[in-house]
From TrEMBL:
InterPro entries: DUF34/NIF3, DUF34/NIF3_sf. This is GTP cyclohydrolase 1 type 2. It comes from Deinococcus metalli. Keywords: Metal-binding. The keyword Metal-binding applies. Coiled coil: none annotated. It holds the Pfam family DUF34_NIF3. SUPFAM superfamilies: NIF3 (NGG1p interacting factor 3)-like. Belongs to the GTP cyclohydrolase I type 2/NIF3 family.
Length: 264
């Protein structure tokens, strides 16, 4: 690897890790979020980044895939550190071992990548579904991390679910507690079924989220709102992909999405 001094400028196709991390931290405004996830650089690897991999989750599989593909940086939505001390044993040790042995940087962006107006999971889905008059929605730890908007023309619940299915490639689970038509939609990727009361209070007729919690099953029917569950994983592929593409635009870094679906 060509050594780079502090004074040398970044050239297209490669960037100093510290510069890239500073750019990401600023672009994603990670300091603005109270999050159980440790957002930012979680594992320090090689000091120069030339190739990026992106995945939703951090696992032995995704880390090994990133290492095998020659990536210098793995960009993830779900990182390794979630607000509690972890002994370096078992699978956690193995994950760290793979990254450190491969000199792989691991950067995690959780809530900041749900919420981001350009590359966020929810903004990306709203654009793909052509929602209009999009506003922030879905309060979490003092920040709105989702979006709400209107479909361009009234759709049946079935048509809306079909559009979501086309977008994610997975069959949706629909709890039709609202009316038969869809006009005003809230989107909250991942595990967002606890947003049902907030969505209903805002007069939204439909909530699109990822994964249902069993305790929220009755809420859809009792609050009178449709809930479309499109998968935790499948609703969170958008952000890391868009962010990696942004790094390509910004720094000329080639990237690859590592698809390891969970089916959840
Ligand atoms: Zn998630």
């Amino acid at each position: 690897m060509r050594p780079m001094s502090d004074a040398s400028p970044n050239t297209p196709g490669e960037v100093r890790r510290d510069d890239l991390v500073a750019w990401l931290n600023d672009y994603l405004q990670i300091g603005e979020f109270r999050d159980v996830s440790l957002n930012g650089l979680q594992i320090e690897g090689t000091p120069v980044i030339r190739r990026v991999a992106a995945s939703v989750d951090t696992s032995v599989k995704t880390l090994q895939h990133a290492a095998d593909s020659g990536a210098d940086l793995l960009l993830v939505h779900h990182g390794l550190f979630w607000g509690k001390p972890l002994p370096v044993t078992g699978p956690h040790r193995e994950r760290l071992r793979i990254a450190i042995q491969a000199d792989l940087n691991l950067y995690a962006a959780h809530l900041p990548l749900d919420a981001h107006a350009d590359v966020g999971n929810n903004a990306m889905m709203a654009r793909a579904l052509s929602l209009q008059n999009v506003t922030p929605f879905g309060e979490f730890a003092g920040k709105k991390i989702g979006v709400a908007g209107e479909v361009p023309f009234e759709l049946s619940l079935q048509d809306f679910a079909d559009r979501v299915q086309k977008l994610t490639g997975e069959i949706c689970l629909v709890h039709g507690g609202g009316g038969p038509t869809v006009q005003r939609v809230g989107i909250c990727s991942g595990e967002g079924s606890d947003r049902i009361p907030e969505a209903a209070a805002l007069g939204l007729d439909t909530l699109l989220t990822g994964e249902p919690a069993h305790k929220h099953f009755n809420d859809a029917f009792e609050y009178g709102i449709n809930v479309v569950y499109a998968g935790h994983y499948e609703t969170e592929v958008f952000g890391v992909r868009a962010l990696a593409a942004k790094l390509e635009d910004q720094f000329g870094l080639p990237w690859q999405f590592l698809h390891h679906p969970t089916g959840l």
